Amino acid sequence: MKGGLLRRAARPSTWRGRAAPDAAAILGAIPVPVVVLDAANRFISVNAAAEQFFSSSAASLAQLGLAELLPADSRLFALIEQVRRLDARVSDHDLALESPRLARRGVSVHAAPLPELAGAVVLTLQDGSTAQMLDRQLNFRGAARGASAMAAMLAHEVKNPLSGIRGAAQLLEQNAGEGDRELCQLIQDEADRIRGLVDRFDMFSERPVELGPVNIHRVLDHVRRIAESGFASHLRITEEYDPSLPAVWGNRDLLVQILLNLVKNAAEAVDPVGGEIVLSTAYHHGVRIAVPGSADRVHLPLQMSVRDNGPGIAEEVRGTLFEPFVSTKRGGQGLGLALVAKLVADQGGLIECDSRPGRTVFRLSMPTPPPGSLGTAQ
């Protein structure tokens, strides 16, 4: 019964001699999620933004109560009861609305009683996670640029001396005794290892990226086949695809590299017994963000997700997860996710991570092909 209550409450009016839009039409145009709950905390009216916030249609929400979406100890219930008790407006900020069906953090809630219906409460929900995501993305891009500068510096300052050190060790080895030969070989091996690390950093260097329409489901199928035939052969990989998803504007090879890295990380995180990885796609209104090489803010409605049921990522490293040298793996160098962040940024996309025990999701948001673009999806 989407907007039903508010539509009945609206009165015909005019504005500058024309019929004014009713309350339901105005509510539907508001980009902020607005819901009306009855005295039993069941949904009786939602706007379009609220449908997106809860990832459910108005018809589905009409069959639910708030208690079916959030745990009983959520601060939101205390706020709603305070509104009813005081018969006054109440606000709260930085709420975490989390459950198996919902994952929102940094939410600001403004609640007010609705006099026309006893016990009813109107909620407006301002999701701070989008702003946090954009802020993190800027940090990721800064980290990628820092890694690029570091790669150039290392290539120039380290590779040449390493070659000299390795050559000197080879010369010394020719006239060295048995014990000294082992030390000379150790020097050469370590020089080779450091050079390999520098070569890995070279992947962060700035290179032009060729973009075109990409069928993301073909990319995901390719990644899944690689995983199932190798590092994730013992795990269950399931798909939740939106078959109507249009082509992604990106680079096929880079998207394979990104998603393969994310799936491999998920495979290493989950329990070998009962571990599960879910690959999903969806179309969302997304956000508009200015990206390098574009004078306009671009729309990022295409979302790909890699979800696992592993133990989750420690909270103290989530904020720096995509920065170089940050790793949750024993012996890890912390370059994989930093490279992922750079490759996503190179294609004008966004990447974010939500994690809690038993559920970690990496979400990649990408643009659609620009108007007039040519070519067949790869």
UniProtKB/TrEMBL annotation:
InterPro entries: HATPase_C_sf (IPR036890), HATPase_dom (IPR003594), His_kinase_dom (IPR005467), HisK_dim/P_dom (IPR003661), HisK_dim/P_sf (IPR036097), PAS (IPR000014), PAS-like_dom_sf (IPR035965), PAS_4 (IPR013656). Its EC number is 2.7.13.3. Residues 153-370 form the Histidine kinase domain. It catalyses: ATP + protein L-histidine = ADP + protein N-phospho-L-histidine. The keyword Kinase applies. The keyword Protein biosynthesis does not apply. One of its GO terms (molecular function) is phosphorelay sensor kinase activity. Keywords: ATP-binding, Kinase, Nucleotide-binding, Phosphoprotein, Transferase, Two-component regulatory system. PANTHER family: PEROXIDE STRESS-ACTIVATED HISTIDINE KINASE MAK3 (PTHR43065:SF10), SENSOR HISTIDINE KINASE (PTHR43065). This is histidine kinase. It comes from Neoroseomonas eburnea. The lineage of its organism: Bacteria, Pseudomonadati, Pseudomonadota, Alphaproteobacteria, Acetobacterales.
